[in-house]
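Subject: complex prediction, re-run

Hi both,

The earlier run crashed halfway through, so I resubmitted it with identical inputs.
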Amino acid sequence: MSIAGFEVEVERGTGLETEQMTLNMGPQHPSTHGVLRFVIKADGEVMRRAVPDVGYLHRSIEKISEKVGYHGFMPYTDRVDYVAAMFCNQGWGMVTEKLADIEVPKRGEYCRVIAAELNRIASHLLSVGTMILDIGAITPFFHSFREREKINDLLEELCGARLTYNYMRIGGVAWDLPPGYEEKVLGFLGQLEPMLDEFHDLVTENTLFRGRCSNVAAIPGEQAVAYNLVGPNLRASGVRYDVRRDEPYSVYPELEFDVPVGTGAAGSVGDSFDRYAVRIAEIKESMKILRQCFRQIPDGPVVAKVPRKLKPPEGDAQIRVESARGDMSWYAVSDGTEFPYRCKVRTGSFAAMSIIEDISPGLMLADLVTVIASLDIVAPEVDR
Amino acid sequence: MLQTFLDSLIADGTFGAIPRDVAYAIGMVAAGAAVVFGFVLNISGVTTFVERRVWARIQSRVGPNRVGPQGILQWLADGLKLLMKEEAIPYAADATLFKLAPFVVTIGFITAFVAIPFSSALIVADLNLGILYITSMTSLVVVGIMIAGWASNNKWALIGGIRAAAQIVSYEIPAALSIFTVILITGTLSTQGIIQQQGWGPWDWFIFHSPFTFIGFFVTFVALLAEGNRTPFDLPEAESELVAGFVTEYSGARYLFFFLVEWGNLYIIGAILVTLFLGGWQAPHITDSVVGMNILQALTFIVKSYLFVILMMWIRATLPRVRVDQLMTTCWKYLLPISFVNFMGTALWVMIWPQGFRFAEIVLTAMGFGLVGYFLYRVAFHLRRSGAQITLSPLS
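This time it finished cleanly. Structure:
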């Protein structure tokens, strides 16, 4: 992936000489969701190629882990994906627990799942909201953010923070559910449902929205697997794979939920509309999971006894979490000291970023914005 | 009216030894300045405030409410802020053209007000090609946008300018053809002439004159939306795609001018539609006082036009943007054939019933009201179903 795309190509021999325009989209651009950069070769409004250029938000988070120790690294994981920080918390917690062989109490696991699923709803609401904003409609964005704000309130009550939660600890969670939390969450879910219906009327059935999304950048299942797409992007292409179901972790085996896949409702399977529809369907599944969690949550401690100076035995461990952006894999190596020897995160947005170059030829300039938004690329997650 | 007033002033000796022509010129400049500073510039500003408040209610927010009572002076504060900003000119830009563009745009916008009739007497000049003059003057805006896009020396601005040119030139055709359907009925291009042939009642409006004008009204509305760069056709400055389109490099007062024009254009779109199809300033004759009737007529006209401005705000808040290819398809494959058929149909209609066909007018009026009623019913249905709490006070 070079920036060699900057030289000018002139098509000769046809009598009509046309020159491709090289456009630089980003790092500061309203619809790149953070600091992404694309070098676009365009023929008028039609893109010939869009080369993603990553690395503008690299903060060496993985390296930081080697200096701050196992417990100290937890707040940093929030910054890996600040839209869905709970999953990063959970990933780091799980990989350390596997390294040090720590058992998380049942109630702690349920608290984790409740926090994570609330966060998933918030992340998907942000994703579909910004997607519609990028397509040009303003009101649905505010409606989805209004609901996300309520989740932020709920999570603030749970852990004191609205964005970078730092809620989970190695061996469990930091705090038990506050009193009356169940009623609050169930009350919120009760009014999220009519809001989703309203959203459906306003957006999903909108002809202009469908016109902008259907058949745009359809990714077939094989291509999605070949490019290692994960999460909702993979499922939108018709591949029914979800870490929560296929490699279950935490208490997900005790919970019942469906894995929605793209059906090509507005055109071909795996187009931008399917990616949108899958996220809406997943919000509903998360609501189902939350209701079950509150029915099944047992009493007991929420965090296991973990030594202050955690020194896992030598070795390595790798776990996977189904983040809002898909299969997030955490790998850590311990050398027996209180600092990890190496930590590595593999995130969904990075894979999604790499497929853009392949699907971009022939799309319109305006479609690139739809594609970035529908793949739900979050810049900090790309670079870490 | 202005002439008689100036004549009386000259007779009084107010102008002293100044020649008559110079006195006329001074009077016209003063009247023009009064119109521009008293109404034209303010309507753009107030529209920006109204739009922000209307959006806020739609988006369950409060909106600006700090400057003045209920934030009514917000637009003045915003304007002053922009005036005091530095006006940066990019190093590589064509400075002359870059400075020229906002003026071209503003001229195209302000001069259009010359032929807009606010009442039977309140019009700057009742030109005999009035409606043609308005459409050609508003088209001047695209020249300014093109200049802005080119002179900025920025690729995003250039794409915005080119998009604007393609869009406005394309949509000019269905808009003009639909306007001509009305001209076929009236036989005059004068805006006052068009309004005088309509009545104050909806059954006398040209929108309900024949099925063709009924469709023509919607074609005109869509085409004018596209010409005014409004959602769902706001591609030239599509924020999420082109950063800010042709205004990307502008700042300070020059930026202010572009926005002045954009929001002022909303009012012009409303005024054109009301003049052509919705009876203009025609109001029921309830008083014999000329001044009283003129005030009533002006209120009628402004309220009718402003209803369209609010409708356009609603559309902008709700709908997503179309893509360039969809934009062109809408124009060339749908609007253009429809407006041609309308044109021919109206010609036939006028040939068969030169005085209009009363039965069709009444049926169409009933249909129009039925449509509005059904629409309101649907809105009420959705509100009931969503269980939304509707309050008109933004702070509750």
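The longest helix of chain A spans residues 106-135.

- K.
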